[in-house]
Amino acid sequence: MNRDDLLVTIFSATALFGAAETVLRLKDRNTSKARFLRERWNPERPWERFDHMAGWELTPGYKSETVVINRHGFRGTDLSRDAGLRILCLGDSATFGPPGEENPYPRILQAELEKKGKNVEVINAGVGGHTTLNMVHRLKRLMKLRPDIVIVYAGWADMYEADIARYRDLRMHADSYWHSSAQKQVRSHVCALIREAMAGTPSESISLSYTSEEFVPFNFEYNLRRIIALTVAYAARTILVTLPKLLPDDPGTMTAGMVAKCLMPDYMEMGDFDSFLMVYRSYDAIIRTLAEENDLPLLDLERENNHQKRPRTVFFENMFDLTPVGSKTVGKFMAKKLIDAGMIE
């Protein structure tokens, strides 16, 4: 084979590979979108849309009487070019916040800091239902905003999503949320297809089964470590947040109002509050341990929650989502702690 023939062969093979890769990626995206519409889309949350990386995101420009999404795809007003300090609040529905644009805690946090004369911009990067797995697959795009501080308030969606009786190992690097949850390590779709064809069946880990007493959420730990590593790589100050909850540490002290608001994970029996607390503590321990291991500031919202004099039902819509009063309390607490710790000058 002469040189020209070799170049033609290489060019043709490259073009064929590229065409096949494009077709497979488009097919994969359409399949993932159909999966999102089937499994995730909720008419009660019309501001959410399919995203091929993170699973779903907020629809830029969406507006209603209770929810406003800016043109950048975050809840709240458009981003500013003049902020002296930028804070990114990463989280799930507790960060996205209750109805009313004045109610999410990132909005309260910004208002409280501005009252103290601080030139800051707080970005609400919360998306309802996002686990740390979703967050990992959107974080590189978020870090392009160059936040100075990243507040990570995550764990509730992980806790409700992960069935401890069928707990799959999702500690893997993949191109998107959908590939991770489908147990596919994907860099090239063509190569992945060839590997699957040679293996006979797609690789998938065997689900593990745990009781609430022995459960360790290693997927949550793995993803939280990845989030910390990425935010630190972008030179952002990373702050972890413990998870405030409706349920008191002693279920025997629960009131009828608390019981009425209890929303248990699907894998638990209604009223099995002891098991809920065991699983909750396993997540709480990971947050505290990683904060200590990485020498990160910890905003202990649960400790503050335990010191509140008003009934817990005032602060929570359900087990974990905040009421407007709860959001206001969290935003004020965060502002005070950030200033007291000298993280905002």
Layout of helices and strands:
Layout: H1 3-39, E1 48-51, E2 55-58, E3 85-91, H2 93-96, H3 105-115, E4 120-126, H4 132-143, E5 149-153, H5 156-161, H6 177-181, H7 189-199, H8 218-233, E6 237-241, H9 256-261, H10 273-293, E7 298-299, H11 301-306, H12 324-340
Parallel strand pairs: 3-4, 3-5, 5-6, 6-7
Antiparallel strand pairs: 1-2
Helix pairs in contact: 3-12, 4-8, 8-10
Short key terms for the protein model shown above:
345 residues, alpha/beta, Rossmann fold, two-stranded antiparallel ribbon, 44% helix
Question: What can you tell me about this protein's structure?
Answer:
The structure is a single chain. The chain has 345 residues and is an alpha/beta fold. It has a single domain, classed as Rossmann fold. It is built from twelve helices and seven strands. It has helices at residues 3-39, 93-96, 105-115, 132-143, 156-161, 177-181, 189-199, 218-233, 256-261, 273-293, 301-306, 324-340; strands at 48-51, 55-58, 85-91, 120-126, 149-153, 237-241, 298-299. The strands form two sheets. The chain has a five-stranded parallel sheet, with helices on both faces. A two-stranded antiparallel sheet has the order 1-2. A hairpin with a 3-residue loop joins strand 1 and strand 2 (55-58). Helix 3 packs across helix 12 and helix 8 (218-233) runs parallel beside helix 10. The longest helix is centred in the N-terminal third of the chain and has 37 residues, at 3-39.
